[in-house]
Amino acid sequence: MFLSIATTHRPATDLGYLLMKHPARVHETEFSFGRATSFFPQAGEERCEAALVLDVDPVALVRGRGESPVEGYVNDRPYAASSFLSVAINRVFRTAMTGTSRDRQALADAAIPLEIEVVPLPAREGPDLVRRLFEPLGWQVSCRSVDDATGEAPYVALRLEGRQRLADALGHLYVLIPVLDEAKHYWVGEDEITKLLEKGGAWLAAHPERELVTRRYLKGRRDLTRSALARLAPEEEAEAEAGPAARPSVEDALEASMRLHDLRLETVTGVLAASGARVVADLGCGEGRLLERLVRDRRFVRLIGLDASVRSLERAARRLRLGQPEGPQADRVSLLHGALTLRDRRWQEAEAVALVEVIEHLDPERLPTLAEVVFGTTRAKTVVVTTPNAEHNVLFTALACGSLRHPDHRFEWTRAEMRSWAAGIEERWGWKAAHSGIGPEQPVHGAPSQMMVFTR
Question: pTM score, two decimals?
Answer without folding.
Answer: 0.57
